[in-house]
Amino acid sequence: MNEITAWSAVETAQKIREREVSCTEVTKAHLDFVELANPVLNAIVESDPKQALATAAEYDNNWKAEGLPPLYGVPVTTKINVDQAGSATSNGLPALTENIATEDSPVVANLKQDGAIIIGRTNTPEFSLRWFTSNPLHGLTHNPWHPDITPGGSSGGAAAAVAVGMGCIAHGNDLGGSLRYPATCCGVATIRPSMGRIATHNPSHPERPPFTHAMSVQGPIARTIADVRLGLNSMAKRSSLDPLWTNSQGNNEEKKRRWKIGWFIDAFDDGVDADVMAATASAVSALKEAGHKLIEMPPPRALDAATIWGDMLFTETRIMAGESIQTMGSPEIAGVFEAYGTFYDELNTKGLLQAMQQRMEIQRLWSQMFDDIDVFLLPVSGQKPFLNDQDVKSPETIPDIMRAQRFLYLVNVLGLPAATVPVGVYDGMPLGVQLIGAMHDDAVCLDVAEALERAVKFEKL
């Protein structure tokens, strides 16, 4: 990083407001750093420096002492699976390279409206359906901590870019952990917002299937929780393109000096990696030492929730996208999808309705749990970050991968917010925990995550 790219989004916005630095200087510094760092990481796969600098120059000309939007001049990245006018929404597929968006998706429009300058588009696996980031169109994205370890997926490009300072905030999305897993793999922070908190729709694509829409969210990845909060507030503005968008601000509780936090490590009772156990225990200890109340308690019906996610999602995907995966995807993604799918059942109509009913039962149990605690702390994954493309290169390990990632996707089926914070480095790789909140208590998740961030003092790249 250079001095400017090392600034947080909050610092960058403040320095631009106070005219300590121009939008053009900030944008050029980030673009120069992309040119230097990206050939090693392959995190940003599309960029238009000319347009970014033109936008920065326009912002400099329009600067005013008061009333600037919160992200004015702040460099950000977007993921190649959302519509951005003039760019291809390829989703990592060579077949969609000519799918040029003519208008912005809500999350991109909201970032632009708040003054962000988009410096690039980040990589994703084909169909954004893996916890690894590679595709035939743009190749493999590397983890800045170790070249042989995955940066996570599907927002691996976003996390790798922001971890080293290519942009201050990265956009990503999360259907089965695709914000939280890359964040922990790359040692950065994020929040999987509550269902409906950020409007989502790609005008260039058909409507998303119902279970995908109910379990997938858009969100920010950044180097600090303060930057995550800044990104969330900008991304979460209303858009009529998403009829399920919600304006709920949660319980509006004042920030507490002492939080009540439930926690558990082995939520599925089949073991977790020793370093994952140590990282989670260190987060619990740090929060206790900071004066918060920690209560060890098993989460309600965690295995059932994870199973419902898999059964519903893979049934829907086989029916609604199975043909596209076979005809548009590579043999690798087709094989991986089939292997992932064998871990869960394909449901008939009765089975789907029963799964939806059970989902509501479990959502109620979690809702009632939050009568007694503010957030629930869990590992992000049951294992340390996997090797690059491990699901393709070692398909016999896919059942282990699916089991490890249940910590992630049980949250998706519940629709709850979950913030992720890195807490330490183990065997050279960062590990984090997730702080899960009650529905729409996104701010509470971020408040507790900020308390943990202060307590552990994680050293970023």
Automatic annotation (TrEMBL):
Pfam families: Amidase (PF01425). InterPro entries: Amidase_CS, Amidase_dom, AS_sf, FAAH2. SUPFAM superfamilies: Amidase signature (AS) enzymes. It comes from the Bacteria. One of its GO terms (cellular component) is endomembrane system. Residues 25-446 form the Amidase domain. Gene3D superfamilies: Amidase signature (AS) domain. PANTHER family: FATTY-ACID AMIDE HYDROLASE, FATTY-ACID AMIDE HYDROLASE 2. This is Amidase domain-containing protein. It comes from uncultured Thiotrichaceae bacterium.
